[in-house]
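During the reporting period the student researcher (J.K.) took over the structure-prediction task from the postdoctoral fellow and processed the backlog of single-chain submissions. One of the processed entries is reproduced below for the supervisory committee.
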Amino acid sequence: MHSNRIMCPKLSERIMSASEAAAFISSGMIIGMSGFSTGAPKAIPAEMVKHADNLTIIQGAGLGGLDKLAASGSVSRYTAFQWSRELRSEINGGKIAFSDIHLGQLPDKLRRGTFGKPDIAIIECSKINEDGGIVPSLSVGISNALIECADKVLLEVNLAVPSEIEGLHDICPNGHKPLRGVLERTGEPVYRCDPNKIIGIVITNEEEPKIGFRDTNEVYSDIARQVLRLLDKEIAENRLPRDFALQAGVGGVANAVLLGLSEGGYKGLKMFTEVLADSALGFIKSGVITEASTTTLDLSPVGLEAFFSDLDFYKDHIVLRPLEISNGVTQITAMEPVAMNTALEVDIYGNVNSTHAMGTKMLNGLGGSNDFCRSAKISVFITPSTAKNGDISSIVPMVTHVDSTEHDVDIIATEYGYADLRGKSPKERALEIIENCAHPDYRAALREYYDGAVALCGSCQTPHDLSKSLSWHQRFLEKGTMKQS
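J.K. obtained the following structure tokens:
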């Protein structure tokens, strides 16, 4: 049974039900799980709630079975990024201790034992070869590091992922030399694991949960136009090659930028990124992008169908790598990408908050934005100028939480323009951001704050009026708007 998926005779004897596999997990364990949105185990986590509580979960970017786990009260600690609504609710409710971290640092910290030694790693895969090589599914993330570090391993072989996906991945050895090209391969297309560590294999046939990203809208299209204006200028002034490499997240703005590149006649671009979504598939097909490296495919059901129906083509243009490669500082520096990431709010000096609403409520986590912005050729943060129907300004006197400091931010772009912060002092940055990025409804108030801070502080490097720097957020909490009456 399933001999074309589990081809190693020794391991074929370890097939069991999800319930039997979950019985290996007991309360208080540290559990590592595959998955970077896609590629997470789905059957075993759903059964774990019957067997254990007080669990520590380590995962690159969780989705999969996390909702059920979080809602059950079985999880007491989680690292590192998450898309789960239930998990986010439990984190902000103080029931789950959440350790946010630069994702590019996660594999090394895992190997150093920062989070403790994983008792069991639960890894989704698509196939096990005769020699025991484990073919990954739709993401790599930290799965290779979890297999290496965990005492025991449970595998979920997901029949919903075609076995022909083999060859898409490049599982590079830790400490490899920097890649010279986006599609260069230095490793194997499989994970390697001591067969004696594998204590059970569960056969599943479960599709990926639907991932919801915001569609492109008029504001996102306007932001994209500002980013394209920047890119065109950089190319015209010979600071950027026309076939540059790009790192972009997922969602409306990234889609709009890619569409703008296509309409602008760009061809032969490269992507060196953490996440590759539906829109990128179409641009790979059209030749706008010819080479793409990522650690995960975050695809909708429609995107997955398109991907699976033309696997051979996409395997020639896409490679999936471990997180320490996709987000590795040395590798990012070598690829010289233009990095585009999303900000929740930006202050007038260029500090970025990506994670905390009003400074207190966690959204999803830092992710890999800082991995890229620290090391990219050009670091761009994008945000609509307002939120909550205009009651929140995304440009504020002082951010309530800092994820990326002014030192790592080159460009801020909103629908009204972009501020080029490179080589500028704090006072120069403040004027750039206020005049080019702030919504017109908030510009006068930002100028008033800045002028007042300058008058208060006199001769200083970074003028602030600490009695007012967070008053905008306090006004929103009290009155439901940042606007001054």
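The committee noted the following: The longest strand covers residues 120-128.
J.K. will present the remaining backlog at the next meeting.
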